[in-house]
Amino acid sequence: MLEKSPILKNKSQQSPRHFLDIADLDSATLRKIIDNAHAMKRAGKRVPAKLRPAGVEDAVLVLIFEKPSTRTRVSFDIAMRQLGGGALTLNHTDLQLGRGESVADTARVLSRYADGIMIRANKHATLLDLAQNATIPVINGLTEKSHPCQIMADIQTFEEHLGPIEGRTVAWVGDGNNVAVSWMHAAVRFGFKLRLACPKELYPEKEALDWVKREKGNIELSTDPVAAVKGADCVVTDTWVSMGQSGADARKKMLAPYAVDADLMKKAAKNAIFMHCLPAYRGHEVSEEVLEGPQSVVFDEAENRLHAQKAIIAWCLGA
Question: Are residues 103 and 160 in the same domain?
Answer without folding.
Answer: no
